[in-house]
Structure prediction request, 898 residues.
Amino acid sequence: MNHSPISPDDPRLTAYALGEMESEERNQFEQLLQRDAGARAAVEEIRATVHALDTALQAEPLPAPAPGLAEAAIIPGNNPRRRDGAPVPKSTKLLRFPSLYFYISGLAAACFAVFFVYWQQNRPAHEQSKYIEVPLAQAPADKKATGVAMNLPAAPPEGVTVAADAATTRDGEKETDESRVGGQLANQKTAAPAAVARTQTLAGARVAEAPAKLKDFADADTAARRRIAEGSVGAAPKQFSTEAYARLDENPFLAVAQNPLSTFSVDVDTASYANVRRFLNQGQLPPRDAVRVEELVNYFPYHYAPPAEEARADGAPVPFAASLEAASAPWAPEHRLVRIGLKGREVSDAARPAANLVFLLDVSGSMDEPNKLPLVKQSMKLLLGKLRPDDHVAIVVYAGASGLALPSTSVREQAKIAAAIDELTPGGSTNGAMGIQLAYDIAKANFVTGGVNRVILATDGDFNVGVTGEGELTRLIEDKARSGVFLTVLGFGMGNYKDATLQQLADKGNGNYAYIDTAAEARKALVEQAGGTLVTIAKDVKIQVEFNPARVQAYRLIGYEKRLLRSEDFNNDKVDAGEIGAGHTVTALYEIVPVGAPAPDTGGPVDPLKYQKTADRASVDRTGSDELLTLKVRYKEPAGNVSSKLEFPLRDEGRAFADASADFKFAAAVASFGMILRDSPHKGSATFADVTDWARAGLDQDAGGYRAEFIGLVKTARAAMPN
Amino acid sequence: MNTDNQSHESQAFVQAAVARHQAPLLRYATRLFHGDADRARDVVQDTFVKLLGQPPAQIDGHLAEWLYTVCRHRTLDVLRKEGRLKLFEEGQAERLTTAEPRPGAELEHSEARAAMLQLITRLPSNQQEVIRLKFQSGFSYKEISRITSLSVSNVGFLIHTAVSRLRKEMAAQAE
Prediction:
């Protein structure tokens, strides 16, 4: 038994002092107290404080009940009026017949529910830009069919789909549920009585709001049916996948004349690559929308020069250095390819500031699989091994209710932390929001100024209790991000993996996002790149590129579709953007159509302006510069609120692809791979064989073996692609 | 008719409930509205009106919890509609800080109580609410958890943090 003292932060002290413990827990705790004089003293002090609290609060004056609130006014049957003569709202009269009322409203709800389902079935499947269908259910019709033949019964045409998108409105949510349940005949019967039960409890509250009634019944109805749908779908994982990816349409070519500025937020998330790898290793092609090209490219570390050690004028070190390169695009040789690279400064394990970490772990029933909770535990222990004795770790679990599995404990007691991790067992539904609240509360309570304060969330993203609406979860995490605590999101599992939700959380929560499919990946994210994962060196990092119309006709940003910003957002410090971790590299690729090459399809012509004189191309006041473009970067210090700007111009020396650097070739190969997987209209003449050739050129600088693994993946993809 | 008997029973039940719980409920609601007594009164009235619609047998035994839960929901609805849902905004400084010690002041009982009340009102809203539910309204952790939709652990954590902070601040003041 361990005899380490009970921490003064342990909430059990107060729970015990207040007599809130059940008998078994109380006995166990009393045994611990016997050995711990300090804790006993603390309990006494708590009791004294509570006594003072009690007396003070009891003595607080009660407010005098106002006129009009007299009993007679509340009770119907005696023609209620308030004392001051104003009429009591109509609702009281109807409540004279409560049972009759429930009956009628229940009947109305049942009718509505039946009508609703019938109406839903007859609605044509509508193409909403927010929703994505996992191709599994569409195997015959889809050319990009997954390689695995699924034994599906006559699948409902809409498949089983879930939306996940930042902009989901409440109506959008309703439609999601509809499209999920539509076609699942078996659920109707269970849905109707559930809807009735729900609406009965709502009935008392909705009396006077007649126009709102239908909408409320619909909400209750769809909410109830969503729960049922999730339950029944979860029971048959082999047949349906409820994985959720937000739809992604690629960036098109943009004409420089209309769009001289390209602005976006940097991103170091790598989850998409690991996820794609997971699909390919199972012999399946990934769904198009699971492939985010910038995350594939950014999975690999590149050898960009780190920033110089000397500080800026104001004494703060420059957090990153930029590396630009241009050559011909291998899949379209008449186009140029520009690679923008940012390299964050390194912070050694010894030099980084002390860490205050809260592991927020999903231990719900859905995590009870070998590639989930056991892998989570392994990952957390790997990370624990990288921490220093002056770091602190707390563990919060969430499943149904959320709970503090371990109060903030110094890493000096590493064994205790590891034991707490080992003891976790799965079970319950997933109330992510409660867990998030508790985790941030603890992180803030133990905040280390100038240190690393971070919540590390490990989950499959399948939140299905409590706050589950996209909008609410987003707002919750945005609010939490303001506290100065950063976030790392680690995704696990498959079959119900909610990629879109997790990406949203990381985005809005000042965080980074990685997908952990194997122990090796856990090692990469949490051991090799521990510094980068833990230590943020710059936040709200934005890029804006200005293209020179004398040299560039049109351009296309490859990837980053979810990160685009308006031109005005670049200099607006209130607009949130991505974070860069210590030692991280960020890579972005532009495909450029130079002046003189055949014009690409940039959409329809733009009408000349009626109220402003449009200068035609020849008379635009150009600077006569021979630069291709200028890269501007804005960033804030991790704890700062005012951004600083860096500028880097690029002159294109007209190099051919064959003469480009190894890193350049490898990045191009990965981007091309992503475009082929997505069947992008811009993939050009590239094939998997080409990708392999280009990637091999970058093989000799492959520290972790990741590039070699990539080449293996290309081979697998080639085999999985139907011909 | 059955409904007549029922309504008599309800009336008596509600009358008793109003007599016993109206004032403490008002205090709770006023606190949730940050001192706005008028809105608090409306919400409390709505709560009792709703009570009428409930068969007494269902609520008996946990009447207080039911009242506080309904009152709280109604308050949230009102605040949400007005766009003023900053109810559970936490204080600027979540870390435990101690108050400035008052130089040489001798605190008598009433002054001590007043001082403690002062300190309580300076707690972040979410901690304050939970403290009041525990020590003013006498609910257990489980009941508070149900009323506020927080987990029992979270409730325990908030109460412990608040009590620790109050303990430190009172100790500092007594110097």
